[in-house]
Specification:
single chain; alpha+beta; Ribosomal Protein L30, Chain: A; 39% helix
C-alpha cells in the first residue's frame, strides 16, 4: 500500500473547531406619537418588557422627549414577538403606539 492510499479504518480525522457566536441582538424601539398616553406606554413597558415602575417611567420620558426610546435588546425572535405584542396591545386600546427593530 503506498503512502497515498490509506486503509479506511485508519483514516485521520481532523478536529473540527466549533465557534460559539452570540446571536445578533436587536433593539426594540418605541416611537413617540401625539395620542398614546404616557400611562399606557408605562403599562406596556411594565407588562411586555418587565420593567420596574421607575425604569418604565424613565424610558417613557425618553420616548416623549426624544421621539423614541429603547425598550429592550433581545435576540431576533424575542424582539419580533415583543414588537408584535406592543402593536397588538396598542391597537386593542385604540392607540397608534409603534415599535420597531434595529440591529444592535
Amino acid at each position: 500500500m503506498s503512502a497515498n492510499e490509506q486503509d479506511p479504518g485508519q483514516a485521520v480525522k481532523e478536529r473540527v473547531q466549533t465557534r460559539k457566536q452570540e446571536p445578533t441582538r436587536f433593539k426594540v424601539i418605541l416611537l413617540n406619537d401625539d395620542y398614546t398616553t404616557m400611562e399606557f406606554v408605562v403599562q406596556v413597558l411594565e407588562t411586555v418588557f418587565q420593567k420596574s415602575s421607575a425604569e418604565a417611567f424613565r424610558i417613557m420620558m425618553n420616548v416623549h422627549l426624544n421621539g423614541k426610546g429603547i425598550a429592550g435588546v433581545y435576540p431576533w425572535e424575542v424582539a419580533e414577538t415583543k414588537v408584535e405584542t406592543v402593536t397588538s396591545m396598542a391597537r386593542h386600546a385604540q392607540f397608534p403606539l409603534r415599535a420597531t427593530l434595529e440591529e444592535e
